[in-house]
Amino acid sequence: MEKIGRDLLEMQRVPLAEAHVAAIRQAGTEVRYPAGTVLVRPGDPARHFVYVEEGEIEVMNVFTGERLIAATLGPTQFMGEISFLAGGSWSMAFRAARDTRVVEVPRRAMLDLMAQVPEMSDIVITVLAARRRKQLETGHSALVLIGEELHRDIRRIAEFAGRNRLPCASHPLGSSAAHAVAVSCSVDPHRPAVIFGRDTVIADPTPEKVARLIGLNQDLADDEAVDVLIVGGGPAGVSAGVYAGAEGLKALVVEDIAIGGQAGTSSRIENYMGFPTGISGADLVWRGEVQAMKFGTRFAMPLRVEALEKLADGTFCATFGNGQRVRARAVVIATGVQYRRLPIDRLAGFEGAGIYYSATENEARFCRDTEAIVIGGGNSAGQAAMFLSRVAARVRLVVRGDSLAASMSSYLSSRLEADPAITIQYGARVTAVHGDQRLEAVTIHCNGSAETVDTCAVFVMVGAVPNTGWLAGLVKLDEHGFVLTGGDAGAASPYASSCPGVFAVGDVRAGSVKRVASSVGEGSVVISRVWEHLHRPGQSGDRHAGASRAAASAT
Question: Which of 13, 195, 378, 517 is the most buried (most CB within 10 A)?
Answer without folding.
Answer: 195
